[in-house]
Design goal:
- By secondary structure, the chain is of the alpha/beta class.
- The protein has a single domain, classed as Aldolase class I (TIM Barrel, Alpha-Beta Barrel), CATH 3.20.20.70.
- Strand 9, helix 7 and strand 10 form a beta-alpha-beta unit.
- The chain is globular, with a radius of gyration of 20 Å.
- The termini are far apart.
- The structure holds (5S)-5-amino-3-OXO-hexanoic acid and zinc ion.
- (5S)-5-amino-3-OXO-hexanoic acid binds next to strand 4.
Length: 299
């Protein structure tokens, strides 16, 4: 069975927060700017190369408020070298235009969901026109998409999107299989194997298993040459009856399994190379202060 460009290492994406869990229910969930930055920094140290960000407001609830999104992006960039990937999926209640508007925060990358899917009792809406709008806006703005497939048919949508609207910025196609969402494809080895023939050999893929499917999906993805996404957005239980301590615990487990698979975690530089993301530019130097009139007059 074919699939995807093989790489010598494993890209680990951290999804630390998501939009679904409440801080009151999950006290370890990072929601403040300081908590998100600390998690991002600590997870980079154990193997994460990309951070998939859903932003929370000061009330701890999900927000797409642009000023807040920009603040979090800047803070993560200041303290880490991670590829900053904003969620354009947001929460199921977010208006579609607001989800497109997060691209104004100028992340390195953004998620791009490939189809509408039942999401528990809700509906995660991703009509074709939104998919095209996201894709073309990201092309125009130099943002690299991470396509998200919640079901097998979403991979056919990806092929149709690329055929009609061309390759993404950077020229490389990377797709994440989001598995185990109640309403989407199951988080099983069999479902992952069914996706493989639909993944073009020039693409790379990652997989995410929601809830208790985290571990089987991770092992199946590694065995098929895929990359990994882990974090408290998707997984709150580390083992039966054992709540996740923090995101570092999940990234460290993924990095350990990747090492055992002899495809160790990619560095941030290697991740940028693989995904077609330009190296981070150093911040422009402050302009030198202009001399005062008194200084100019001094011989
Ligand atoms: N929060 C989910 C409804 C994404 O980030 O792009 C959608 C989601 C996908 O998490
Ligand atoms: Zn997300």
């Amino acid at each position: 069975m074919s699939a995807a460009v093989p790489t010598a290492g494993t890209l680990i994406t951290l999804a630390p927060t998501g939009a679904e869990s409440a801080k009151a229910d999950v006290p370890a969930l990072p929601v403040t700017v300081e908590e998100v930055v600390a998690t991002a920094r600590d997870c980079q140290a154990v193997g994460a190369a990309v951070v998939h960000l859903h932003v929370r407001g000061t009330d701890t609830r999900p927000t797409l408020d642009l000023a807040r999104v920009r603040e979090v992006v800047a803070a993560v960039r200041e303290s880490t070298d991670l590829v900053v990937q904003l969620s354009s999926g947001g929460a199921v209640t977010d208006p579609l235009p607001d989800r497109v508007a997060v691209l104004d925060a100028e992340p390195d990358a953004a998620s791009l969901s490939l189809g509408t899917v039942n999401f528990g009792r809700d509906v995660f809406s991703n009509p074709w026109d939104l998919i095209v709008e996201m894709h073309t806006q990201m092309q125009a703005r130099g943002i690299v998409p991470e396509y998200e497939a919640f079901d097998l048919g979403h991979l056919a949508t990806l092929r149709r999107l690329l055929d009609r609207h061309g390759l993404p910025h950077g020229g490389h196609v990377h797709v994440d299989l989001v598995m185990g969402v109640p309403g989407g494809m199951p988080g099983t080895t069999r479902a992952l194997a069914a996706c493989l023939p639909e993944i073009d050999p020039t693409w790379t893929f990652a997989a995410t298993g929601v809830g208790r499917t985290s571990l089987p999906v991770m092992l199946a993805a590694l065995s098929a040459g895929g990359h990994l996404r882990v974090g408290m957005e998707d997984t709150l239980t580390y083992a039966p009856g054992e709540p996740v301590r923090d995101n570092v615990q999940l990234v460290a487990r993924a990095a350990g399994l990747a090492r055992i698979a002899q495809r160790p975690a990619l560095s941030t530089t290697q991740a940028r190379e693989m995904l077609g993301i330009s190296p981070r530019q150093p911040a422009p130097a402050e302009p030198a202060p202009r001399p005062t009139a008194a200084q100019e007059a001094t011989p």
